[in-house]
Amino acid sequence: MASLQDQLLKAGLADEKKAKAIRNEKKKQRKQQPKGTVQVSEAEIRARKAREEKAERDRQLNLERQKEAEKKAIQAQIRQLVNTNRLDRSRGETSYQFVHDKKIKKIFVDDKMVDQLSRGRLAIVFVNDQYEIVAEGVARKIQERNENAVVVLHDRHKDDVGEDDPYAGYEIPDDLMW
Known about the structure:
This protein is of the alpha+beta class. The chain has helices at residues 4-11, 16-32, 42-85, 111-119, 136-145, and strands spanning 94-100, 103-109, 122-127, 130-135, 150-152. A three-stranded antiparallel beta sheet has the order 4-3-5. Strands 1-2 form a two-stranded antiparallel ribbon. The radius of gyration is 38 Å and the shape is rod-shaped. It starts with a helix and ends in a 26-residue tail after the last strand.
């Protein structure tokens, strides 16, 4: 296959003098360039720059997608922890009030759960637009993943001796509940 220059000469669209002048000009340019350097056109530079910018945009987009996937995975873990460890509140007769998002909320629990909530043995978590009660250990695991999911978790007191409580026999008056 002949070069484009040869084809143009055969077709009569170019003359021999111009072809020779162009060849000499290209030869001069090649000789003037130091060895090892490649002549790079402006279009190639712009194309390379565009490729680099696109690669950077793609990288940023990938990072955002990964963060979003991590958030979803954490939410799924929290939902699973709550679904497998939530306590049954169906027998709840006593209202337990707490603050969430600057509003006072109320859930019904039994008397034993009220006591354990106030001592920090149980916690209230907010998942799937519902309040659920879970054990303290599960609440701490949830808190590691998302602090905002745990609504109520009181600190345990060192003097809280649990079942061996010396004041266990004393009733708390009803008017102390809020």
